[in-house]
Amino acid sequence: MVEDLAIVIVDDMQYSRAVLRTTLNRIGYTDVRMAASASEALAMMSDRRAEVVLADWVMPEMNGLELTAAIRQKDEERGHYTALILFTGKEGDEAMMEAFSHGVDDYLTKPVNQVQLAARVYAAGRIARLQNTVLETSAALAATNRQLEYLSTTDPLTGLPNRRALDKRMESTILETQGRGGAVCLGILDVDHFKQINDHYGHDIGDEVLVVLAKRLRLALRPMDMVARMGGEEFALVAHFQKAEHCDPGIFERVLRTVSEESIPTSEGEIPVTVSIGVCCYRHGEEMQTIQSMTRVADQNLYQAKEQGRNRVVG
Ligand code: GH3
Ligand code: MG
Ligand code: MG
Ligand code: MG
């Protein structure tokens, strides 16, 4: 018994189609569909895919080679592979070479020998299954990689980029500022007296505050700016400006006001929250900065902001 295959026969001659189908049925293939033209075959295959296509070369409108190109393109889009056997009355090595150079997997001359047909269809089925296994495996691998990439760069509590993603962004933004121009500002934001919120309402409510705060910070900045969670109740804000003269550390004042203007809703009621922000900006042409040097300066400024009474921006 052969393993069944989804087969499509394409031939403009009704008689040829019927002979092939009868032969394939006799071998044991039950899923054999027939199309009278290339476009009919393509429609059939977009309904339900085929594993092996047996196509006539010479057909009106779209010929077997054009059909091969169309199937290859559709397969590429969908991540499938269809094995293609071209059959033809054309004689000679040149015709055969032309067919293979157009991407067919196999080639048969008419009248089609039944034993050869059985062997070639069997081999074509094996090609299709091997190719499809490879494609499915690499698609699964790519999905796993995307998932890993997401997990390794995202903070699970707030859904914001994490420290690792922040470092990557800072590195590329600093390089861009150095090379192409513009400016980059790093703000390190720390919630004021967050320990008191935890102590008073409990750690879970503290978490709720962090989640809402993260959303507010995201909304307070431009889409191209980055808001990341550095850890604990500390967030990093990264803003890049195309031109050095557009550098505007004032955005951090706006962030500060957005946070303190409205209390944060939690399941234990509204909790007023203020934050302190330490800023470091690097403009093109200034002495070179690194992530470390910018973080150091922003941290020192954050410390100053806390010292000076909190709920303020320094830098
Ligand atoms: P300051 O104004 O000086 O920043 O005071 P603070 O109380 O915010 O500073 P401190 O660093 O003493 O406290 C930060 C607290 O944040 C301590 C820690 O328990 C809490 N914390 C860190 N990570 C989390 C978290 O993921 N969830 C919650 N609920 N609390 C956290
Ligand atoms: Mg024909
Ligand atoms: Mg802190
Ligand atoms: Mg704090």
Number of helices: 10
Low-pLDDT parts are none
- pLDDT average, as an integer? 95
What molecules are bound to this protein?
Answer: 3'-deoxy-guanosine-5'-triphosphate, magnesium ion
Largest sheet geometry = 5 strands, parallel
In the CATH scheme, the class of the largest domain would be: Alpha Beta
Description:
It is an enzyme of class 2 (transferase). Its cofactor is Mg(2+). Pfam families: GGDEF, Response_reg. This is diguanylate cyclase. Keywords: Phosphoprotein. Helix 7 packs across helix 8 (203-220) and helix 8 packs across helix 9 (250-261). With 315 residues, this protein is of the alpha/beta class. It has helices at residues 14-27, 38-47, 64-78, 93-101, 114-153, 163-179, 194-201, 203-220, 250-261, 291-307, and strands at 7-10, 32-35, 52-56, 83-88, 106-109, 183-191, 226-231, 234-241, 264-266, 269-271, 275-283, 313-314. It has a five-stranded parallel beta sheet with strand order 2-1-3-4-5, with helices on both faces. Strands 7-8-6-11-12 form a five-stranded mixed beta sheet, sandwiched between helices. It folds into two domains: 7-148, Rossmann fold; 163-314, Alpha-Beta Plaits. The N and C termini lie far apart (79 Å). The mean pLDDT is 95.
Question: What tags apply to this protein structure?
Answer:
single chain, 315 residues, alpha/beta, Rossmann fold, Alpha-Beta Plaits, five-stranded mixed sheet, 10 helices, 12 strands, 20% strand, binds 3'-deoxy-guanosine-5'-triphosphate, binds magnesium ion
